[in-house]
UniProtKB/TrEMBL annotation:
<protein>
    <submittedName>
        <fullName>Protein N-acetyltransferase, RimJ/RimL family</fullName>
    </submittedName>
</protein>
<dbReference type="InterPro" id="IPR016181">
    <property type="entry name" value="Acyl_CoA_acyltransferase"/>
</dbReference>
<dbReference type="InterPro" id="IPR000182">
    <property type="entry name" value="GNAT_dom"/>
</dbReference>
<dbReference type="InterPro" id="IPR051908">
    <property type="entry name" value="Ribosomal_N-acetyltransferase"/>
</dbReference>
<feature type="domain" description="N-acetyltransferase">
    <location>
        <begin position="11"/>
        <end position="168"/>
    </location>
</feature>
<dbReference type="Pfam" id="PF13302">
    <property type="entry name" value="Acetyltransf_3"/>
</dbReference>
Amino acid sequence: MYAISLGEDGAELRPLEPWQAEEFLAHIDRGREFIAQHVPLADLVTDLASSRAYLQSYADRTLADTGRIHGIWWNGALVGGIVIPAMDLARGTAEVGCWLEPSAAGRGLVTRAARLVIDWAVEQRGIHRVEWHVSSENEPSIAVARRLGMTRDGVLRESYPYRGKRQDIEIWSVLAPEWRAAAEARRTTHGER
């Protein structure tokens, strides 16, 4: 298995696979209420069988080249993740999302991890448009979309029922030329690779 460093704080991005279902469930249990504020993942992964099934669904998407799931480890513990729930190579589109448990919030882990995943999608897989779908009430995730240089395309009003309330979903996106220009600006300004 590979691990990609997310910086000097020891954080890493690694693939999440079905054999890690127990660790994944423990992570979701630690952050369940925090995650569940905006992300249905906490309602989908409730026991070992559902944890394994969720990770298997992404193993199947990886095999079909239509999605991916990666975990964020910090101080040796799984604390969050970045997911590509949909990737259409023929159309050149992908959606990226995230979740995080509260112990790891506010450290820039999601932004750093998402940057790596988006860079892979654009540069390695030829994706032209990357989307970020987020509840209008999820300010931390909206802030990540902004830090990633995404543009708010619009709002799908009351488009998603979640926990008894219809959610407004914002669609943010970045196009490959914009992504490359921002990456070049970061390299020039901050000496990033």
